[in-house]
Amino acid sequence: RDVERSRGLGDVYKRQVIHGTLKTNGMGLLAEWNDLQDGLATVGVKGELLGSLERILAAIIILGDVKFNSLAHDSSSVANKDIIQNAANMLAVDADMLEKVLTSQDIVIAGETTVKSLDSRHASANRDSLAKMIYANLFAWIFKMCNEFLTDTQAA
Description:
Number of helices: 7
Order of helices and strands: HHHHEEHHEEH
C-alpha cells in the first residue's frame, strides 16, 4: 500500500520514502503522507485526482531546484535541463515552454507583444512566483473540495 501511494513522485524521492532513508521528524514523512491521503479521500480526492495532486506538489518542490545561468544582454537560461524536464513532466507541460516562461516576460504595448529576456535574478524570482501561484491555486482547490464535502447533505 505504501509503495502504491508514493507513485507519481520523483524517482529519487520515491526511493528515499520507500526505503526509509529520507530524514524526517516524528513518525516519518510516509506515515504523515498516508494520514493526509486518508483525509483527502474523505473529501473525495482519491485515485487519479490524488495522483494529479501528488504530481503538482512534486513539481512545486522540483521547481525550487531549477537554477539559472547568466547570459549576455541581461538574459538567462536554465542550468539544469534535467530538473526543468522533470518539473515539466509533473505539470504535463512542454519543458521548452516552461523554460521560456521562467526566463522571459511578455510585454504588451499598444496591442503589440514584445518578449523581454530576464537575467538570472529575475528568472529566479519568476520561478518562485510560479511555484507560489501553483501552490495557492492548489490550496484554494483543496479548500473548495473540503467546503463542498461539508455542505453536501448526502455526504453526512
